[in-house]
UniProtKB/TrEMBL annotation:
Residues 116-307 form the Plant heme peroxidase family profile domain. The gene is CCP1_2. One of its GO terms (molecular function) is nucleoside diphosphate kinase activity. Its EC number is 2.7.4.6, 1.11.1.-. Residues 23-40 have a biased composition (Low complexity). It catalyses: a 2'-deoxyribonucleoside 5'-diphosphate + ATP = a 2'-deoxyribonucleoside 5'-triphosphate + ADP. This is Multifunctional fusion protein.
Length: 426
C-alpha cells in the first residue's frame, strides 16, 4: 500500500515500511515544521495499515459491508488540516497532541481542547465507523510525527465510553503547577512556549532546561518561570522539578545529549499511554503433542467458552529458522536445541485470540509453564504433566504477541464484529 505523500524534508527513516505524512521522523530540527509536500509526491504509510494484522493486539476493523476503515486515509485527512498560519503558532499539531493524552487520562473542557475536537469533527463525519477514541489518538500520533517526532506504533481498537462515569474524576490527576505546546492564559492559566520552535518535536526542551537560567515571572497569573535572557520562554514548577530531583535529572541530561534516545523512550511511553485498557490479541500456538493427542478442539473450546474471539487459525509445519526466532530469548539456555527439535517433531496449530485482557487472561487459561504447578481447570492442569510436553505456548506480553503474530501470520489477521459481544461485555 502506498501512502499519498512522503514527508522527507526532515530526513525521515526509510525502513521496510513508510509512514504517513504526519508519522515520525528520526531527527527533528529546531526549526518550524515544513509545509506539506505537493499532491504529486507520496505520503509515508501509517504504521498500523501495514502492521495492523501483525502487531498483536486489539486491531478492530469497523466495517461497512465488510469493508474495513482505511486508517491511512484517516491519517491523511488529519494531515491535511494540521497547518494553519492563522492559528496560534501556525499548526494545530500541539493541541492535537494535548487532546490525545488528555483523552487517555482525563478530559477538562476548560483546557481549550474544543478547538481540536471541532477540527476533527468533519473527519469523523467522513469516516463514521472510526471511534472518537481512535480518531483522537491517531490525531496525536499524526501530529507528533508530522512535527518531526519519533515513529509511534499505532493500532485501532479503542471504544468510546457511554457515560461520564467511565472517566477519571476531576482533580484525581495532577496539574502542571504541582508535578509535572505553548501554554495559554485562557486555557491552562499559564503563558508562553517552552521552546523557540513550539511546532517542531525535538529534544530542545531538555537543552533549554539545562542551559538557561530560570527566574520567577512577575505577573498576576499562576506561579511559573521565564528565561532570564528574554523572558519569552516559560517553565512550570513541574519542569524545574526535573532538574532539581536527582532521579529525574539523569534523564534530562541523557535526553539533552541524545535526541534519538529521547525519541525511542517517548515513542514507547506514548504508545503505552494510548493503549491503556485496549483489549489485545494473544498468539496461542498448540504444540506438536497437543495436535497429536487430538486436543486442538478442546483448547479452542476453552478460549471460546471464556468469550474470546478467534481471529486467526492455521495448521503449520514450522521451520528451524522460525522456531529459533520465536524462542530467541532462550538461545543461551542448555535446553534450547532440545526445545527446537521437539517443536520440529510435528505440526503445530497457531491461533490468535481477541478480547479484553486476552494476553493476561489467556495465560491463566493455559496454566503455569510447569503443568504440575497448574491448577485443575486450566489447560495444562487438566491435560499434561511434564514441562517439556505442556501442549501450548502463550504470549507473555503484548510486545511478544506483536512479534509472534508477525512471525506466524505474516499474511495478517482480520477481526470482524460479532453480535454476541453484547452478551459478553458490558
Amino acid at each position: 500500500m502506498i501512502a499519498r505523500r512522503l514527508f522527507s524534508t526532515i530526513g525521515r527513516r526509510s525502513p521496510a515500511f513508510l509512514k504517513p505524512r504526519f508519522q515520525t521522523t528520526q531527527a527533528a530540527k529546531p526549526t518550524p515544521a515544513p509545509k506539506s509536500a505537493p499532491e504529486s509526491s507520496s505520503n509515508t504509510l501509517l504504521y498500523t495499515v501495514i502492521f495492523a494484522a501483525l502487531a498483536g493486539g486489539g486491531y478492530y476493523y469497523y466495517t461497512e459491508q465488510n469493508k474495513p476503515v482505511n486508517y491511512q486515509e484517516v491519517y491523511n485527512a488529519i494531515a491535511e488540516v494540521l497547518e494553519n498560519n492563522d492559528y496560534d503558532d501556525g499548526s494545530y499539531g500541539p493541541v492535537l497532541v494535548r487532546l490525545a493524552w488528555h483523552a487517555a487520562g482525563t478530559y477538562d473542557v476548560k483546557t481549550g481542547l474544543g478547538v481540536a475536537r471541532d477540527l476533527l469533527e468533519p473527519i469523523k463525519k467522513k469516516f463514521p465507523k472510526i471511534s472518537y477514541s481512535d480518531l483522537w489518538s491517531l490525531a496525536g500520533v499524526a501530529a507528533i510525527q508530522e512535527m518531526g517526532g519519533p515513529t509511534i506504533k499505532w493500532r485501532p481498537g479503542r471504544s468510546d465510553a457511554v457515560s461520564a462515569e467511565a472517566c477519571t474524576p476531576d482533580g484525581r490527576l495532577p496539574d502542571a503547577s504541582k508535578t509535572h505546546d505553548h501554554c495559554h492564559t485562557d486555557r491552562s492559566g499559564f503563558d508562553g512556549p517552552w521552546t523557540f520552535a513550539p511546532t517542531t518535536f525535538s529534544n530542545e526542551y531538555f537543552k533549554l532546561l539545562l542551559s538557561e537560567r530560570w527566574v520567577a515571572k512577575k505577573w498576576a497569573g499562576p506561579f511559573q518561570y521565564v528565561d532570564n535572557k528574554t523572558s519569552s520562554l516559560m517553565m512550570l514548577p513541574s519542569d524545574l522539578a526535573l532538574i532539581n530531583d536527582k532521579s529525574f535529572r539523569k534523564y534530562v541530561d541523557l535526553y539533552a545529549k541524545d535526541q534519538s534516545l529521547f525519541f525511542k523512550d517517548f515513542a514507547a511511553t506514548f504508545q503505552k499511554l494510548e493503549e491503556l485498557g485496549v483489549p489485545f490479541k494473544p498468539d496461542t500456538p498448540v504444540k506438536p503433542d497437543g495436535v497429536e493427542r487430538g486436543l486442538v478442539g478442546e483448547i479452542i473450546k476453552r478460549f471460546e467458552s471464556k468469550g474470546y474471539k478467534l481471529v486467526a487459525l492455521q495448521l503449520m509445519h514450522p521451520t528451524k529458522e522460525q522456531l529459533e526466532e520465536h524462542y530467541g530469548d532462550l538461545k543461551t539456555k542448555s535446553f534450547f536445541p532440545k526445545l527446537v527439535a521437539y517443536m520440529l517433531s510435528g505440526p503445530v496449530v497457531g491461533m490468535v485470540w481477541e478480547g479484553k485482557d486476552a494476553v493476561k487472561t489467556g495465560r491463566k487459561l493455559l496454566g503455569e509453564t510447569n503443568p504440575l504447578n497448574s491448577a485443575p481447570g486450566t489447560i495444562r492442569g487438566d491435560f499434561c504433566i511434564d514441562v517439556g510436553k505442556n501442549l501450548c505456548h502463550g504470549s507473555d506480553a503484548v510486545e511478544s504477541a506483536q512479534k509472534e503474530i508477525a512471525l506466524w501470520f505474516p499474511q495478517g489477521v482480520k477481526s470482524v464484529a460479532r453480535g454476541l459481544d453484547r452478551l459478553i461485555y458490558e
